[in-house]
Amino acid sequence: MSQASERPSPEDIILYEKDPATRIATITLNRPNYLNAPTIAARQRYARLVQRANVDDEVKVLVIRGVGNHLGSGADLPEQSELFSDNMDSSLLHEFEIPDDEGVKYPPKDSYRYLATLVQHYATTGSGMRSLQDFKKISIVEAKGYCYGWHFYQAADADMVISSDEALFGHSAWRYAGWAARMWQWALMMGLRKFQEMVFTGRPFTAQEMYDCHFVNSVVPREQLEAETLKYALACAKNRPTDTVVMQKTFFEVFKQNQGEYMGSVLTGWLESMLPMVKTDGDELALGDDTFDKGLNNAVKDNDANFPEDWRLSYKSRPPAEPAGNEVELLRAQVAALQEQLKALEQKLGG
Questions:
Q1: How do the domains of the chain map onto residue ranges?
Q2: 4-317, CATH topology level
Q3: How many CB atoms sit inside 10 A of residue 31's CB?
Q4: For the chain, what is the total number of helices (H) and then of strands (E)?
Q5: Secondary structure class of 240 (helix, strand, coil)
Q6: For the segment 206-257, what is each residue's pLDDT rounded down to a tens digit?
Q7: Which key words are in the record (predicted)?
């Protein structure tokens, strides 16, 4: 039986507000008990809200944040499991906002188009996967806790990412599929060498690692995150006029298309559609009816134990983080040590 009736409405999951005085709008992902996982309908609402902010003359900056301890761990995997399981009565037509009773027949499961139709849809704005690429104003993602899957897409597409220092970035799909929609964009934003490391090992990267590879703009302690995001948002809102911003974004869009952003989205869609052709080695997590019936989220959690502790996706499975310390306090300690050395040297010379 489908769990659809138990899921919150898209309006409850995706909140929207704007402040005309500052020209800052905020999309808040509001499903903390499920790690802010958007349903299909919530992704579609997200796409519409991004477009709404794009048109609205009272919006210059769009901030995307999450309620609770995490930005989010990706899409609603139980819902996706229902779509692909033979034992569930769910339709892929919902991804296209087509009701079941409108006389549209989805391609059969044994056809190439069964999977290809869906994954090529992920390259479009309306799917809620690529919406920020077509946003002609300034977008800022506020990352904290888990930034996985769908939420990681938003971070890759945003103009800026402000992160708390404990955040983890990645995608569980590296573990159960080997690829994910629009992965070309991650390669562009992280750099090929580090992105290959993420894909081939399946490990998440820390906020500091993502800062070091220029994916993240600023890393701060959790308690400073909202203030840091607001600082960036207000600076952007007070800088050049909205017309200038749209012109700037057009320049950057051409730059990204010269790097193949949309082409890469289409290419990754083809790659994802090849999944039924993959022959497993027999000892790894693989997508199939058994996996979907068990629950993809449960299968991913069980598989996490096969990896080194410090490379696991779940905070609960990772070793306790060593105190990072405050950078200012560290510098003060170093200065104090140098002062002691200088004092000892002066005494020696004076003696």
A1: 4-317
A2: 2-enoyl-CoA Hydratase; Chain A, domain 1 (3.90.226)
A3: 21
A4: 15, 9
A5: coil
A6: 999 999 999 999 999 999 999 999 999 999 999 999 999 999 999 999 999 9
A7: Isomerase
